[in-house]
Design a protein that fits this description.
With 752 residues, the protein is α/β, with parallel strands linked by helices. It is 47% helix and 18% strand.
């Protein structure tokens, strides 16, 4: 097995890596041991003591190699203590765990010291370390006196090898550290590879058109030879030249067909390889949720003990993959929520028992992927929030008039918890009541394009739920055209999109607005907000594309030139020399290789607010009296039955559609790539390529995947219907739909 290259690390850096790995083992097993103390789970306790002994032994061996003698002394007495506990001579109760955790804290501080900082730091720690070593040694002196650590360099030693995160028992996978900038560059290159792979598909389509022209040329030669046959029969030389020309055309056609087939296969393989590379690089940007919450069990344990409470932390979904950048941003908000739960939510044991609850309170921290988003929930079984108490706090802080506060819903009241400086605590202490934390959590969620919700059950508990994007490196975005250029808006930051009739726009104090769900939403042109030139269209549009955006307090409608569809985009940071570009957050490259800018929605909403406040909104142009004639929609019908094809053709042509037909799946696939169709209607059972395969090919093609598809089949089994819809069809109809207008209704629903 290939091992990661650690040759560029110094011995002291390797030692620090070893300490970071082993303190996680020590911390986790000491806390678990404390919770099991006094129980009958002897095999589990013995196993934990074995892990603890080995962890201390590993640090001792590593410290000897790098000659950090204070760490050797501390590890030695801790190892002796664990060995004594294994022999049954010592019981590690809560007080003993307190002392041992002090040793873990010392190693954590040591791991944070750089090479130049380490010697002076060790000198400062000498007195405190001596007291700590004595306290730990005292835990085992009653049974097996701790032998002093070796001081002579000549004493035989058998140090444990320096483990790395890749060989630690704390990790089941091999790990190697990679510079973040290098990983981001790798992700950008993987995205470019995916874009370049997509370039092959239109090139293949172009060669398909060339093949068709070659076939036409062959037919023209045959036709010409037939028409000139009487003259050619009198000229053997001319007839031979025609035969050679026809043979050359056939050879060219055969060669082109072979190469086109090879290119098509290569394109599919290369596209699949690029997609696999892209997914693997994205996956390398993810870390298990557990990596970001390693200190939380210790935090809960120590704070609960400080406040005289009993609290257990349940972690669900520890292996859920989380973007490393989001994981870093989550640490501070989750820490504050855990502290709030312990201080405000969980009552002391006597009070909980009087309420009929267990003496030990429970905080549940859960991570999962749900509906394409990362869900993080922090909940407790404590007091919850009394809404009446919250109403009083809102009035007392003069945030809402007393006459109106009772009209607020529970959800509206709970939103006050996220205001900066807001707190319901009666007094300020060192651990709570300072009114900080939840506003930072809300801001963090909005910063990454997510949401934070809170729900309460008075007397039963409180729950906070983050809904965040799975990764900050890739976003699902709506592409829009503004002033002739493409821009992207993250879907998570968009409330909705609308096609608005100009007649639906009203004016209020010269501000244009529309009404959605009885709410007035101000409108603004995207060109004005982004300070771009306005391009005058040849004719005003029948409907205006509008993107509805919002922040905590405002909702606006931004008019764009047109919607370009949805795409997954690899986010690329702007050059830091540009500083913060107003209304822009990052850049990306589309699947077709076109660069674009990603709009910073929060910044954009602030810009719109400033325009409205300053009264600088431009008036919207009124629609012209004459509207352009709608373009005839093109439909491709693919069916191997001539009667069905002709019936569908007549039905659709009678409704004003332009209809082309193909006799099998392969011919349909070639036609849909070469034509410009608004809709595909396909049978299922066909030669050469069936309808399910045809739909799958269309939906995997970057330029065709948005094409609406209807499957029309004799088969009416549920399994066939599910297979068609899973392949990507928008409708699955039976051929009885020809008689009840279901087909025409479906077509009108998809393309008008």
């Amino acid at each position: 097995m290939n091992q990661p290259d650690l040759s560029h690390f110094s011995m002291l850096e390797l030692f620090r890596m070893e300490v970071e790995t082993q303190v996680t083992v020590l911390n986790d097993h000491l806390l678990a041991l404390e919770n099991q103390s006094g129980s009958s789970e002897e095999p589990a306790i013995a196993q934990r003591l074995e892990h603890l002994m080995r962890g201390a032994h590993s640090i001792k061996g590593a410290a000897r190699i790098v000659n950090v003698e204070p760490a050797v002394r501390l590890a030695h007495v801790m190892e002796d203590c664990f060995v004594a506990a294994q022999k049954g001579a010592v019981v590690l109760d809560s007080a003993a765990v307190d002392v041992l955790l002090r040793g873990v804290d010392w190693w954590i501080e040591l791991s944070h010291q750089t090479e130049p900082e380490l010697p002076p730091w060790l000198a400062q720690q000498e007195a405190g370390l001596g007291e700590l070593v004595g306290a730990i040694a005292a835990l085992s002196t009653a049974a097996t006196p701790a032998s002093p650590p070796p001081t002579s360099p000549a004493e035989p030693q058998s140090p444990a090898p320096i483990a790395t995160p890749s060989t630690s028992a704390a990790h089941t996978e091999r790990v190697i550290r990679v510079n973040a900038d290098r990983l981001n560059q790798l992700m950008a290159l993987a995205g470019e590879s995916l874009v370049e792979a997509n370039w092959l598909l239109p090139f293949t389509d172009a060669l398909g058109q060339l093949k068709q022209q070659q076939q036409q040329l062959s037919r023209l030669l045959e036709s010409l030879e037939a028409s000139l046959q009487p003259a050619l029969s009198r000229s053997p030389a001319s007839q031979q030249q025609f035969s050679q020309a026809r043979q050359t055309a056939q050879n060219c056609q055969r060669l082109l067909g072979e190469r086109l087939g090879e290119l098509d296969q290569f394109s599919q393989r290369f596209t699949q390889l690029s997609e696999n590379l892209y997914r693997e690089v994205i996956a390398s940007h993810m870390r298990p949720f557990a990596d970001g919450i390693q200190g939380f069990p210790r935090l809960v344990r120590d704070l609960a003990k400080q406040l005289g409470k009993q609290v257990q932390l349940e972690i669900v979904g520890a292996n859920t993959p989380v973007d490393r950048d989001i994981l870093e941003k989550l640490e501070a908000p989750l820490t504050q929520m855990l502290r709030n739960a312990i201080v405000h939510g969980i009552a002391p044991p006597p009070e909980r028992q009087a309420q009929g609850k267990p003496a030990i309170g429970t905080i549940r921290l859960e991570a999962s992927h749900c509906a394409g988003m990362l869900s993080i929930t922090v909940s407790d079984d404590g007091q919850g929030i009394e809404l009446e108490h919250l109403r009083q706090a809102v009035v007392q802080k003069q945030l809402v008039a007393a006459a109106l506060v009772h009209q607020l819903t529970a959800a509206e009241l709970l939103e006050f918890l996220f205001l900066p400086g807001f707190s319901t605590a009666d007094r300020v202490t060192e651990v709570a009541g300072r009114g900080v934390g939840l506003d930072i959590a809300k801001s963090m969620a909005q910063e990454v394009g997510g949401l934070l919700r809170v729900s309460t059950h008075p007397g039963q508990g409180l729950s906070f739920q983050f809904q965040l994007p799975l990764t900050l490196s890739v976003i699902r975005a709506l592409l829009v055209e503004i002033a002739g250029e493409p821009y992207a808006l993250g879907l998570a930051r968009i409330d909705q999109v609308q096609m608005v009739s100009p007649e639906a726009i009203a004016l209020n104090e010269n501000h244009p607005y529309i009404v959605i769900n009885e709410e007035n939403i101000s409108l603004v042109k995207a060109q004005q907000v982004l300070e771009l030139p306005e391009l005058n269209p040849e004719a005003p549009p029948e409907l205006l594309p509008v993107v509805i955006l919002s922040d905590n307090t405002h909702r606006y409608g931004m008019i764009v030139d047109r919607f370009l569809g949805e795409q997954d985009l690899v986010v690329r940071a702007l050059d830091p020399r540009l500083g913060k570009v107003q209304d822009i957050s990052a850049a990306a490259v589309t699947e077709s290789g076109e660069p674009l800018l990603i709009i910073d929605v929060a910044d954009l909403v602030r810009s719109i607010d400033q325009l409205i406040s300053a009264g600088r909104l431009h008036e919207l142009d009124h629609p012209a009296s004459v509207q352009p004639t709608p373009q005839q929609k093109r439909v491709l019908v693919v069916d191997d039955s001539i009667s069905v094809r002709e019936m569908e053709r007549k039905l659709l042509q009678n409704q004003g559609y332009q209809v082309d037909v193909a006799v099998n799946g392969m011919e349909g696939w070639n036609a849909v790539r070469l034509g410009n169709y608004d809709l595909l209607i396909s049978d299922v059972d066909m030669p050469r390529m069936n309808g399910i395969e045809l739909v799958q090919q269309v939906k995997q093609h970057p330029q065709l995947k948005s094409l609406p598809v209807i499957i029309v089949s004799y088969k009416d089994r549920q399994a066939d219907r599910i297979a068609g819809l899973e392949a990507g069809a928008d409708y699955y109809l039976t051929k009885s739909s020809f008689h009840d207008n279901s087909l025409l209704k479906a077509v009108a629903d998809l393309i008008g």
